[in-house]
Design brief:
Length: 117
C-alpha cells in the first residue's frame, strides 16, 4: 500500500454490494459485488473477494477477482492473484504464481502510438 491512506476502504470481513465510485486510491480487503468505476488506483488485497465489472486507471490485484476489467494505465496481478474475466489495458504485469482465466487485450491508450504497427 502507498504511504498515504486510500480514499475508500472495505476491510477484511466486511461485505459491500452495489456501485463504488472514487477519485484517488481505494483498497478492498473484504467482499465486494457490483460495479466499480473510478479515476485512480484500485488495490485488491490478498483477502479480497470481488465479483464486479471494473473500470479504473490502475488495478493491482493480490486477491480474487471475477469480472471484466478496463484499466486505462495498467493492471498488475501479484503472485497471490486469482482472476477470471476479460482484461483490457495498455500495460499488464504478471507475477509468477498468479492465475488468470480469461482473455487479455493490451493496446496503447487512446491517442497513444502503437509500437507494433
Amino acid at each position: 500500500m502507498s504511504a498515504t491512506p486510500p480514499e475508500a476502504l472495505i476491510k477484511a470481513g466486511h461485505r459491500f454490494e452495489g456501485f463504488l465510485s472514487f477519485r484517488g486510491e481505494a483498497q478492498v480487503d473484504g467482499t465486494f459485488r457490483g460495479e466499480i468505476v473510478a479515476t485512480g488506483t484500485l488495490r485488491l488485497g490478498e483477502t479480497a473477494r470481488v465479483k464486479a465489472r471494473v473500470e479504473v486507471d490502475e488495478l493491482i490485484v493480490a486477491g480474487d477477482l471475477d469480472g471484466d476489467v478496463t484499466a486505462r494505465r495498467r493492471i498488475e496481478l501479484r503472485s497471490t492473484a486469482r482472476v477470471a474475466g476479460e482484461l483490457s489495458t495498455p500495460r499488464l504485469a504478471l507475477e509468477d504464481g498468479c492465475v488468470l482465466r480469461g482473455r487479455c487485450r493490451t493496446a496503447p491508450p487512446p491517442g497513444g502510438s502503437d509500437p507494433v504497427g
